[in-house]
Structures are given as C-alpha cells and as structure tokens.
C-alpha cells in the first residue's frame, strides 16, 4: 500500500510530465513551394509523384512539411507573380518545374534554395548554375541538357518512314534553340529537309500546323517545353487527321494519340527531385549539390495511331519499345 509521502511524490512527477513535454522544442514543419506553368489538372499528376518521392524519403505531408502549390495555368506572364508569392510566404525551398519557372524563381530570390525540373535548358548557358558539378548559387536539380535526344527523334522517324525527305519541327525559340540545331544537324546527315517552326503561344501553334498541312508535310517533331506539353492533345489530334508521323519527348504525347515518344519518364523525374529536397532540408547547400540528368528514359509507341496512319512499324522498333499502346 502506497504511503502518503510516496503518493505525493508520484503525483508530483506525473503532473510534471505534461509540462516537461510542452517545454521540448517543437519539430519544424517545412514549407515547400511548388511552381509550375502547367494547369492544376495536369500538374497535380506530377506533384503526386513528387510527394511519393518525399514519402519514400520519410516525409509526411502535414507532419513534416506543407506544400504551397502555384500553377500558372499555362500563362508564362503569371510565373513571376507566383514566384514572388512563394518568396513572401518565406518557403524553405522552391521546386520549380520548367525552364520558365526556374527563371522566375531565380529572379525572385537569390537565397531560397531552388530545386529544378527542367527538360529544355542548358543550365550553364541559361545562367542558372556555374558548373554542373558545383552549381555555386541557389539553383540545382534535374536538367535534360541533351539536344542529341532531339536528334534521335530524327532517326526514329527515318526508321518508320525510310524515304522521309522533310520534317517539320515545332518548338519554343527561347528554350529550344540548341534542340533546333541538333535536329538540323541530324537531318542534314540523312538528307532530310527541316521546316523549323517557332511557337510561343496557342495562335502560333495553330498557324504552324496549318503551314505544315498546306505544304503537305509528312513528319513532325515536337520539341520539349512546358507550353508545348500543354498543347500535346491539339498537336496529336492534328497529326492523326493529317496523317503526320509525329514524335515528342513525353510519353504523355503518345497517351493522347501521338505516334511515338522518346525521352525522360516525367513521373520518375519528379520522384528523383524529391531526393534533392531531402538533402537541402537536411542542411546541404544547393550550390554544392551537382546537377543531375533524368535517371529513366523510355521509348513509347502507339500502335492504334500507327494503324490509323496506315503504317507498319518495323519489328526492330517494336523490340526497342519500353511501352506499346495498342
């Protein structure tokens, strides 16, 4: 039987426990900003992959961090304003998705870490980083600075259409300059004439497609930019209607009816970016984290579209495909 003295001591200890717990410093809940040119409907698919990457690293949304999502809904002119909003919120880092988003974030802050997911830019030429091994500033992340990927698109088209003589190329002159050059060089080797069409807005896309159709083009390369990604449904539909053999960087182009894609797996890339976020939140400086390239590439074919175009896909290409949509 506990005596009175023992009871008082035990009671005092018990009462002290909540006070002691309350006195412990609260764990910081990080504030992560996400900046994208995309619409929320499109962007959330990739945001979910990014969040999965954070969960894999041990971060639980609402417990370890909150995510401030900002989508420009396809309007480039909104990105600076949205980047400024994130800076005003004093986020711990900004996850910028696309070259335009990276530029807007970098212009808005030189101190907040910026993790980039950029499939178009040469980060050194764009002034985002000093070197790939040691970026030196507040920007690092995943960049696909490989114009030769666009050159490979020429070869894929020739594999499907051996007598190809002309190819139209749609791209953003701001971020796709090196990709235009790579296509020109690859096409020259194969005696294929290039029709370069620079587009920066939706009316440009409409005019470019009309020109390709008017000149009876037979093949189309869609260069990568966040704007072109948002136009993929329109471009794929026009390609099928007008019997254009088309290829782009993203699997998502094939999923909406495009014939072929070769490039980075966007979902995998977003999960890959989460590893950078983990390192920064653990104290690493972005300027000391080397720039990486996408870890996963894939070649995707749409056989339903091939049938609609009256094409027979060579067995060699079918064997190389990572995914075939039937």
Write the layout of secondary structure elements.
Blueprint: H1 4-23, E1 30-36, H2 40-56, E2 65-71, H3 79-88, E3 93-97, H4 99-108, E4 114-118, E5 139-143, H5 148-160, E6 166-171, H6 177-189, E7 193-198, H7 202-214, E8 219-222, H8 226-230, H9 232-241, E9 245-248, H10 251-255, E10 260-264, H11 266-281, E11 297-302, H12 303-308, H13 315-320, E12 323-325
Parallel strand pairs: 1-2, 1-3, 3-4, 4-5, 6-7, 6-8, 8-9, 9-10, 11-12
Antiparallel strand pairs: 10-11
Helix pairs in contact: 2-11, 3-4, 5-6
Walk me through what this model shows.
By secondary structure, the protein is an alpha/beta fold. The protein folds into two domains: 30-145 and 265-296, 3-Layer(aba) Sandwich (Rossmann fold); 148-264 and 298-325, Response regulator (Rossmann fold, 3-Layer(aba) Sandwich), CATH 3.40.50.2300. Helices cover 44% and strands 19% of the residues. The protein has 13 helices and twelve strands. It has helices at residues 4-23, 40-56, 79-88, 99-108, 148-160, 177-189, 202-214, 226-230, 232-241, 251-255, 266-281, 303-308, 315-320; strands at 30-36, 65-71, 93-97, 114-118, 139-143, 166-171, 193-198, 219-222, 245-248, 260-264, 297-302, 323-325. The strands form two sheets. It has a seven-stranded mixed sheet with strand order 7-6-8-9-10-11-12, with helices on both faces. The protein has a five-stranded parallel sheet with strand order 2-1-3-4-5, with helices on both faces. It is elongated and about 65 Å long. 44% of the residues are buried.
């Amino acid at each position: 039987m506990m005596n009175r003295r023992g009871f008082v001591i035990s009671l005092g200890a018990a009462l002290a426990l909540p006070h002691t717990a309350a006195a412990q410093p609260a764990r910081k809940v990080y504030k992560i900003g996400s900046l994208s040119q995309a619409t929320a409907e499109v962007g959330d698919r990739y945001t979910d992959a990014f969040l999965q990457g954070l969960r894999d690293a041990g971060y639980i949304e609402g417990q370890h961090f909150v995510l401030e999502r900002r989508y420009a809904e396809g309007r480039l002119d909104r990105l600076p304003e949205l980047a400024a909003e994130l800076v005003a919120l004093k986020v711990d880092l900004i996850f910028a998705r696309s070259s335009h988003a990276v530029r807007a974030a970098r212009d808005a802050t030189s101190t907040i870490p910026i993790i980039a997911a950029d499939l178009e830019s040469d980060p050194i030429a764009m002034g985002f980083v000093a070197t790939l091994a040691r970026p030196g500033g507040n920007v690092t992340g995943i960049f696909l600075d490989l114009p030769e990927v666009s050159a490979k698109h020429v070869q894929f088209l020739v594999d499907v259409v051996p007598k190809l003589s002309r190819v139209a190329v749609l791209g953003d002159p701001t971020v796709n300059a090196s990709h235009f050059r790579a296509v020109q060089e690859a096409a020259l080797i194969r005696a294929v004439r290039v029709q370069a069409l620079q587009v920066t807005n939706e009316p440009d896309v409409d005019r470019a497609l009309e020109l390709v159709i008017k000149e009876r083009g037979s093949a189309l390369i869609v260069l990568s930019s966040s704007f072109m990604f948002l136009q993929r449904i329109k471009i794929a539909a026009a390609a099928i209607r007008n019997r254009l053999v088309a290829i782009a960087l993203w699997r998502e182009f094939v999923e909406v009816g495009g014939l072929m894609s070769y490039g980075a797996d966007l979902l995998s890339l977003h999960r890959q970016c989460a590893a950078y976020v983990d390192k920064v939140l653990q104290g690493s400086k972005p300027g000391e984290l080397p720039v990486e390239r996408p870890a996963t590439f894939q070649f995707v074919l749409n056989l339903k579209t091939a049938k609609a175009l009256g094409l027979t896909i060579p067995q060699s290409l079918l064997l190389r495909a990572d995914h075939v949509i039937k």
